[in-house]
Structure to design on (336 residues):
């Protein structure tokens, strides 16, 4: 079968976690793997009963009870966050960590919180990820295999990913967004501490490129950004509140800055970097409130149809999923 890479086109907070959860259930996947930097970005999913699920370390594919969830070797692990999510979501029998993952320690978190450049200038979440990655690069970080509390979860995730992908579907959930990539953003230092592209996600989990089945690029209909750095077509706070489209970060709770439209040149650049085969267009109800909660293709409004057409022209890839509201089932699957 192969692996499906889920990557954010822009600055993150696009609903990758919801896409991962939906695909895990729809395709009954046996394994979902977390790529990305570490715990500095969160994913949230509202279940059908209204329960809000928030995660920072593990991919959201566990919502399917058959799906095992893993953390790739290129992803930083905070043992406390990992343990909390395993306990909260009852994943003791389904969670895996690559033994080579570098660890985030309390000292890393404290160092970032003392760093005025990160906190005030960059607008970092100060969750220890940059400091931990710096130590990893300098070859002085601890690894998961050195932490006794992680012993029961250790494995070679790269081998797991490649073995399963030869026979079944594996989901690789990226984090943050392409335009926050350390080496590809023109907005440095307003970036994260690694790259956030499809290729980076493959590298994070050790995936053989020949096993990639699809790259699902998640495009947020009205982009958002948390922290500092430019945001084209940014709306003022009053307008965001007037429209009822305010959002808040999963990790910090900070308000997300909101744009009034997509920047097509930036979307084209993200397409060039990621090579998507499919597009998930999210937060469509923020473009047209009439779409809120829609679950059938006959509910697509003219405004959203026009947006789909333009996104497909720019990316050269079909829009296969439309996100229309907060709940897991608030989706229109155009591939079904």
């Amino acid at each position: 079968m192969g692996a499906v890479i889920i990557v954010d086109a822009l600055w993150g907070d696009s609903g990758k976690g919801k896409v991962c959860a939906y695909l895990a259930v729809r395709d009954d996947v046996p394994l979902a793997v977390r790529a990305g930097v570490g715990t500095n970005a969160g994913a949230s999913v509202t279940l059908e009963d209204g329960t809000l699920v928030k995660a920072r370390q593990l991919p959201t594919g566990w919502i399917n009870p058959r799906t095992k969830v893993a953390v790739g070797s290129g992803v930083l692990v905070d043992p406390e966050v990992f343990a909390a999510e395993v306990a909260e979501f009852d994943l003791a029998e389904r969670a895996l960590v690559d033994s080579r993952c570098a660890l985030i320690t309390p000292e890393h978190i404290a160092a970032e919180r003392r760093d005025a450049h990160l906190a005030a200038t960059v607008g970092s979440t100060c969750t220890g990820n940059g400091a931990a990655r710096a130590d990893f690069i300098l070859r002085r970080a601890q690894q998961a295999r050195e932490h006794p509390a992680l012993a029961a979860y250790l494995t070679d995730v790269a081998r797991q990913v490649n073995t399963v992908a030869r026979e079944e579907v594996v989901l690789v959930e990226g984090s943050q967004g392409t335009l926050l990539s350390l080496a590809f953003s023109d907005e440095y230092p307003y970036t994260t501490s690694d790259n956030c592209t499809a290729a980076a996600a493959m590298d994070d989990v050790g995936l053989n490129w020949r096993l990639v089945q699809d790259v699902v690029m998640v495009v947020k209909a009205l982009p958002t950004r948390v922290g500092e750095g430019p945001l084209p077509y940014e709306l003022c706070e009053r307008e965001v509140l007037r429209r009822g489209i305010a959002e808040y970060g999963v990790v910090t709770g900070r308000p997300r800055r909101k744009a009034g439209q997509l920047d097509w040149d930036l979307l084209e650049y993200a397409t060039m970097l990621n090579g998507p085969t499919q597009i998930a267009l999210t937060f469509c109800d923020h473009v047209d409130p009439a779409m809120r909660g829609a679950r059938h293709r006959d509910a697509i409004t003219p405004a959203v149809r026009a947006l789909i057409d333009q996104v497909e022209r720019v990316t050269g890839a079909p829009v296969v999923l439309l996100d229309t509201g907060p709940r897991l089932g608030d989706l229109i699957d155009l591939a079904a």
